[in-house]
Every structure is written in structure tokens, then in C-alpha cells.
Amino acid sequence: LPIPSPPAMKDPASRTLLLAVLDAQRVRCTVLAGVFGSGVILLLVGVTVSGSWAPRIIFPWVLGLALQQLLLARFVQRRLDAGTGISSRFWMLSGVLEVTLVSCMILGIALTIETPVYALHSPSPYAYFILIGLSTLHLDPRISPATGTPAALQFMALTFVLLAAMPVAVPLAPMITSAMPNLVKGFLILGGGMGAALVARELRRSFERSVLASRERDRMESTDRGKSTFLAHMSHEIRAPLNAVLGYAELLT
After folding, report:
1. For 110, which of 40, 115, 116, 181 could close a Cys bridge (C-beta 3.0–4.6 Å)?
2. What is the Cα–Cα distance from 249 to 226, expressed in whole angstroms?
3. Could you give the 3-state DSSP secondary structure of residue 222?
């Protein structure tokens, strides 16, 4: 399907900002591809060393995240070369896909351990915060909440599903069997998305101020060059007739 994108901008300031946004998006995708690619390597080592089937359930989701980010980095690079932007709607859908893959990864972890609810307390939910934090590099305050909101809702849904699937006979601490701590985590994920939106807005304003300052500096330098050129021409144009006047005056004298 064709991906909607705004037309290439001819205004120098807007084009500079567009290229800065695209470059930041490329960096984000490259970093995430490196993070999840490292996870793929660790899972392969775990399967080779232990021979366990457990990492194999998580492997497809981590590999999918790494491949998705590699494809996105390539796509952004092509748009960067062409000088055309990418719509916010596309990145919102991409954020929903990313957090969905992370949720599937957490569910896969839950299926590989004896007590599935422990998957909610493992480091894997922090992948949500990695995605939300790096979403600020889009420099669009609408994308971070669009990433954080589905992440929070999916994490809360996983909480109820895994607690319902937990064996009754397993003695666990109330902190583990209670849904409240995980719901608090969900609200923290949601708040992280809102906070990241504020950071993205400030980063965009900072970029815009930098671009405007650079444009104003270029305008002043162009004005100074124009003044110098004008004075040089005027000096020549005034000096030539004055020499003629002085010459005729001397002849008349």
C-alpha cells in the first residue's frame, strides 16, 4: 500500500527541519534494530548452550522487532535521500505494531515459565519504556501517546489474563497475586507516553528555534554582502561622473 507522506518542502527552513526529523527517526530505528538484534543473538546462544526449547518461543517476536526496525531504517533513509517526510499516522501504526510484538514476547515468556505471572515482573516490560523513550526522536508529540496508550492497555490485559491462568495451588506472595501493582505499572507506562510527548514537543521547538536562528543569521549575512556590493557599485558609479566634471572644470579654468 502506498504510504502517505507530506510533499517535499521547498522552503529552506522547513526543509532543514524535515531533514533533521528524518535523521532523528533513522537514528531511532537503527538503535532499536541494534537492541533487538542483540536480543536475537543472546537467544541463539541460549538455545545453543542450554538446548532448551523455552527461548524458541520468544525468538520469533524478538527477530520480528529487529527486522521491522531494519526495514524502517532503510525506508527512512530512502525518504531522507529524496527529501520527503513521513506522516505521523504511519509512525502511530508502527508504534502500535511495536508494542504488540513486545506484548507477544511477554506472553511467550509467560508460556515458558512454571508461574506465568512472573513474566509481568521480569525486565521484559521495560521494552515498552525503551520504545516510548525513543519515540521522542520523531519530534512529534502525537506519536508518544499513541505508543504509550496501547502499551499500557496491552500490559493491563496481560495482567488479568496471566493472573486468571495462574494455578490456585501455587503459594505466592500477595504482591505477586494482586493485580494492583501491575495496574500501577500500566498507568506508569501510560504516564511515560504523556511525558515523552512533552519531551518531543520541547525537542521540536528547540530544533525550530535553531533553524530560525540559522535562517536569520544567513539572511543577515546575505544583507551585509548586498550592502557591500551596493556600496562598491555606487562608489564606482559616483566616481566616474565626478572625474568627468572635474576634468571639464579644469579645462574651463
Report:
1. 116
2. 35
3. helix
CA dist., res. 27 & res. 207, Å (int):
16
The CA distances from residue 121 to 41, 55, 175, in Å, are: 23, 18, 11
Q: Are 170 and 115 in contact (CB under 8 A)?
A: yes
Read off the C-alpha cell for 44: 541463539
How confident is the model over 53-112, as pLDDT tens digits?
A: 556 778 888 888 899 999 999 999 999 888 888 888 999 999 999 999 889 888 888 887
Question: What span, in angstroms and rounded, lies between the C-alpha atoms of 84 and 75?
Answer: 11
Task: Collect contacts of 123-131 with beta carbons under 8 A, ≥24 apart.
Answer: 125/155, 125/185, 125/189, 127/102, 128/99, 128/102, 128/155, 128/189, 128/192, 129/189, 129/192, 130/32, 130/35, 131/32, 131/95, 131/98, 131/99, 131/102
Q: Which residue has the cell 500501577?
A: 184
d(CA 85, CA 237): 49
Find how far residue 104's CA is from the centre of its chain: 22
Q: The C-alpha cell of 99 is what?
A: 508494542
3-state secondary structure of 122: coil
d(CA 119, CA 173): 15
Nearest CA-CA partner of 96 in 139, 61, 147: 147
Q: 108 exposed, middle or buried (CB, 10 Å; 0-12, 13-18, 19+)? A: buried
Residue 124 to residue 109: CA distance in whole angstroms: 9
Please, are residues 16 and 49 in contact by the beta-carbon 8 Å criterion? no
* N-to-C CA span, the chain: 88
Compute the distance between CA of residue 110 and CA of residue 107 in angstroms, rounded to an integer: 5
Q: Could you tell me the pTM of the whole model?
A: 0.74
